[in-house]
Specification:
Layout (H helix, E strand, L loop, with lengths): L12 H17 L9 H31 L15 H5 L7 E3 L2 E3 L1 H20 L6 H29 L4 H23 L7 H8 L2 H25 L2
Antiparallel strand pairs: 1-2
Helix pairs in contact: 2-4, 2-6, 5-6
């Protein structure tokens, strides 16, 4: 008597390796190549914009101390009623955080935040790998800094009705910082795994959007207060 046994499907170890290799190739393909999408260029621009924002934060902190010591003196950037650092610095929006009966100028927090972004940019330039959660938190931190900067800008434009040149510089530096951080998060960190975002940067649509973004901010300032600024 002869017996036959049904053959059950088996998975060879090579099949598992092929699956893992395919997944690794897919993840690698999600990160764009080329100097403009590499860590050196993207994080270098982030470093420069963060350094500029840090310098401006130091200047604003020094001016806050100057106002506290000599409240009757004008600051060097008090040009007219519209371009007036003193008017902005003396508003409640300039010291949003209160703790223990004391108020803290926003510029002090700018120094702390930009120091962190500078450190992150240096890590990126040196190609030190960071966990996925760290990269996501970094982008969220950049988004929070941008939102806070734009809130202060809107308050200055439409509520205080005065512009601080240093504050404008900080706002533009924070904007560029966020643009480049977003670029690096997608092209260097590969977060998120989206073919649409990869195409957005590969086809250089980001350059067009960034230019329009900056020009829109400048146009808003000129339309709202241009006549008074150059009066």
């Amino acid at each position: 008597m002869t017996t036959t046994t049904a053959e059950s499907p088996t998975h060879d170890a090579s099949d598992l390796l092929d699956s893992e290799d395919a997944e690794a190739l897919e993840n690698h393909a999600s990160v764009l190549t080329g100097w403009r999408h590499g860590p050196t260029w993207t994080y270098l621009i982030m470093l420069l914009s963060s350094i500029a924002a840090l310098i401006v934060s130091f200047v604003l902190s020094a001016e806050t101390l100057q106002i506290a010591r000599h409240p009757q003196e004008l600051l060097g950037c008090d040009v007219n009623k519209v371009l007036s650092c003193s008017t902005v610095a003396e508003s409640w929006q300039a010291e949003l955080i209160h703790f223990g009966g004391l108020s803290y100028p926003n510029a002090f927090f700018g120094i702390a935040a930009e120091s962190v972004f500078i450190t992150i940019a240096v890590l990126g330039i040196t190609r030190i790998a960071v966990p996925r959660w760290f990269a996501i938190c970094t982008w969220l931190g950049g988004l929070a800094a941008l939102a806070y900067s734009y809130w202060l800008f809107s308050q200055s434009m439409f509520v205080i009705n005065a512009l601080c040149p240093w504050c404008l510089g900080l706002m533009f530096a924070t904007t560029i910082q966020f643009m480049v951080l977003s670029h690096a998060t997608v092209t260097v960190q590969g977060i998120p795994m989206s073919s649409g975002l990869r195409s957005y940067y590969r086809l250089r649509y980001d350059l067009m959007v960034d230019v329009v973004w900056i020009l829109a901010l400048i146009t808003l300032i000129l339309v709202k207060d241009g006549a008074a600024i150059f009066a």
